[in-house]
Amino acid sequence: MSRWESLVVVGDSFAEGVGDPLPDGTVRGWSDLTAIELATRAPGFRYANLAVRGRRLDQIVAEQIPAATGMRPDLICFSAGGNDALRPGFDVNDLMARFDRAVGTLTEAGAEVVLFRFPDQSVRLPLPGLLRPRIIAMNDAVSGLAGRHGAHVVDLFGDAAFGLPDLWCQDRLHLSPSGHRRVADQILATLGVAPVPESVRAGTVARRRRRDDARWAQSHLGPWLRRRLTGGSSGDGVGAKRPRLSPVTRHSLPQ
Questions:
Q1: Which residues pair with 27 in a beta bridge?
Q2: Tens digits of per-residue pLDDT, 117-139?
C-alpha cells in the first residue's frame, strides 16, 4: 500500500510529456507512467497534470502552482527552469531564488515534492560551452534547496543512460518515449517503490555530422528562433492536459 493517494504534476514540456505522442495526438510522458504505477499501490489514486509546453518559471508559478496547492495532493512533481536557461541574459542566482520560493510554497501546502536534476542536453545543442554551465549551476542549486525543504531529488544528470541518442527526440530538446519511461523508472526508484534502473554505459557521444546539424537547424532551430523573435511560444493556445484530480487505474491511461 502506498502512502500517496494523489499526484499533481506542474512544469513545462518535460512534465507535460512532449516527445511521447499517442495516436490521438495527445502526449503521455513520464508523469502518466508514474501515475499508473502509483495507482497500482493505492486504490482510488488520483492524478492531475497542469504542465504546459513552453512555460517559463514565472508563468508556472503564476498559472499552475496556485491550482496545484489548491488540490491538496500528497505528492507534487515540479519541473521548471529549462526554458529560462535557453534565453539570453539568464541569471541562475535570480532564477533559483524564485525557484526556491516556489518549492517552499508547495511544501507549505503539505505535499511531498519531487524535483529534478536535468540531464546534460548541451552535447546536442549549439553553444555547449554556454549551456552546460547553466545546467550544472541549476542542478547544484536544486540539490541544495531540496535539502532545506525536504524534497525528493531525481538525479537525471547522474544517469549515463541520458547520453544515449535513443532517449531523445530528433529536435534534441525533448525526451523520446524511451526517455520518458526512464524518467518514470528513476522517479519510482527515488520514491522507494521500485528498484533502481539498471545502469547504462553511454560511451562516447558520436560526433555530429554537419549534414545532420543543417537538417536539424532547418526543422527545429529555425522555428524556435522565429518564436523567440515574435514573442511566441510552443505553448500558445495549449492548455493543461489533465487539469483536475481524477481517478487513475492501470487501464485508464495508455501504458
A1: 21
A2: 999 887 766 666 678 999 999 99
pLDDT tens for each residue of 135-158: 999 999 999 999 999 999 999 999
Helix, strand, coil shares, percent, the chain, to 5: 45, 15, 40
Which pLDDT band holds residue 222 (cuts at 50, 70, 90)? very low
State the cell numbers at 158.
Answer: 547522474
Contact 112, 74 (CB under 8 A): yes
Total-model pTM: 0.86
CA nearest to 52, candidates 82, 22, 7, 18: 18
Q: 113 with 73: CB under 8 angstroms?
A: no
Cell of 73: 495532493
Where is mean pLDDT largest: 30-39, 122-131, 224-233?
A: 30-39
End-to-end CA distance of the chain: 21
Measured CA distances, 242 to 49, 52, 94, 174 (Å): 5, 10, 31, 20
The C-alpha angle 185, 191, 193, rounded to 5 degrees, equals: 70
Whole-angstrom distance, CA of residue 41 vs CA of residue 63: 30
Distance separating alpha carbons of residues 59 and 18, to the nearest angstrom? 18
What lies within 8 Å, CB to CB, of 8 at 6+ separation is: 47, 48, 49, 50, 68, 71, 73, 75, 76, 77, 111, 245
